[in-house]
Design a protein that fits this description.
Elements lengths: L1 E10 L3 H8 L12 E7 L2 E6 L4 E10 L4 E8 L5 E13 L2 E12 L7 H25 L2
Antiparallel strand pairs: 1-7, 2-3, 3-4, 4-5, 5-6, 6-7
């Protein structure tokens, strides 16, 4: 069954500077707490995690005009889900950046009971990522 998790977090840094870090898809290891390494080769992004192996992704969209970054996780071993699509939409808000980060995926009936835990953990991770992203952007100034 298809599930969606929608999050909204404030990044206390200017929109253009935040987009400069998010838009290329690189350097996730600098601000995403679970990512230890990150490299981009064409439209492929490989992120090594601290504990759960690699995330192999395809960058689907990096829209500079609308500040939208979208990716598909092609291979991962952390969650009992498949067909993962993440969409990060950035906009200016209160002198900083609003980060709408949504993720949709398929979860089997067998694993459906894990959804609430996955949702809670994802929301917490994306909140930590927004805080770390602000720290990373502001340290670059």
């Amino acid at each position: 069954m298809k599930k969606t998790i929608q999050t909204v977090n404030q990044v206390n840094a200017p929109l253009d500077k935040v987009w400069a870090k998010v838009g290329p898809g690189t350097n996730m290891d600098k601000w995403m707490p679970i990512v230890a390494t990150c490299r981009v080769e064409g439209d492929k992004r490989i992120c090594g995690t601290h504990e759960a192996g690699d995330l192999k992704e395809t960058i689907l969209k990096s829209d500079d005009k609308n500040k939208v970054f979208q990716y598909r996780i092609d291979e991962q071993s952390m969650l009992p889900v498949t067909n993962i699509i993440g969409t990060m939409t950035l906009s200016e808000k209160n002198g900083g950046t609003q980060l709408n980060w949504d993720v949709e995926f398929d979860i089997s009936e067998e694993n459906a009971g894990a959804f609430e835990e996955i949702k809670t953990n994802t929301e917490g991770l994306y909140q930590m990522a927004a805080t770390s992203l602000a720290e990373y952007v502001n340290a670059q100034n």
